[in-house]
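Sequence and structure are no longer studied apart. To make this concrete, we show below a single chain and its fold as tokens.
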Amino acid sequence: MTRPAVFRQPRLLIVGCGNVGMRVLPLVRGRCRVLALTSQPERCAELRAAGAIPIVADLDRPETLHRLRGLADWVLHLAPPQPDGAEDRRTRHLVAAIGKVGRLAYVSTTGVYGDCGGELVHESRPVAPKNARARRRVDAERVLRAWALVNGTHLSILRAPGIYAADRLPLKRLELGTPALRPADDVYTSHIHADDLARIAVLALFRARGGRVVHAVDDTRMKMADYFDAVADAFGMARPPRLARAELQQVVTPTLLSYMSESRRLDNTRLKRELRMRLRYPDVAAALRSFSGTIANQKGN
């Protein structure tokens, strides 16, 4: 007897089902039986309404993860590392709990490259993390590679830059008038719209080559302060003041300064050739134009 189609669908576990994960859900409904890991019981109703079966567990508490073993065929790992330490304990807890799975896609960060002096970076470039956040991401990638090799898992790693959307823009920073770097000191930064990142994550599960790194970035190659200027112009806000680096480091937090101390441009040829990704928002300018209705509503409020 032929089994119903629903039973032939892969069981997909989404780990870290936040903003991007919620954008993934409508893309995989009907293609996968979706489970979503959450540490917040109050989110269960939201996840069910979006088409996922919620699994309440906490990556920071490995004793809660025993239910995950053998639960999924595929895993989409979107959870960031915990905010301290040299290792990504959450990823280590996850792979220890889930056992063997057929496919896993992990969203990492382009921060693993460190400062590249504005050079164009390809996926083959060695990692050189300069801060603890990036070192934890490198640790997660290495743990996943070793685990995938032992378990025969088809692993893909997506390195994503700053994620933005109509509801994820630096408007508060602009309101506060936080300074940006003058052109001579400014850094190149890369971007990806949250909707495009969700689509890339799904394509990675279905199309990525095993063991490959792919840059999940759009075509934008602009300096950071120019990005702030573009957002400010779109929303009719004042552009941020520009300061020399020596002046800026006296008035911003060390964390913010670290983001403004690494310059790189990311090549996305592999994204387009191997995943056959067609960006809905090819660059920030195109996205800001598409936000016109949202911008008008926000101005009206």
Q: What stands out?
A: The radius of gyration is 20 Å. The longest strand covers residues 103-109.
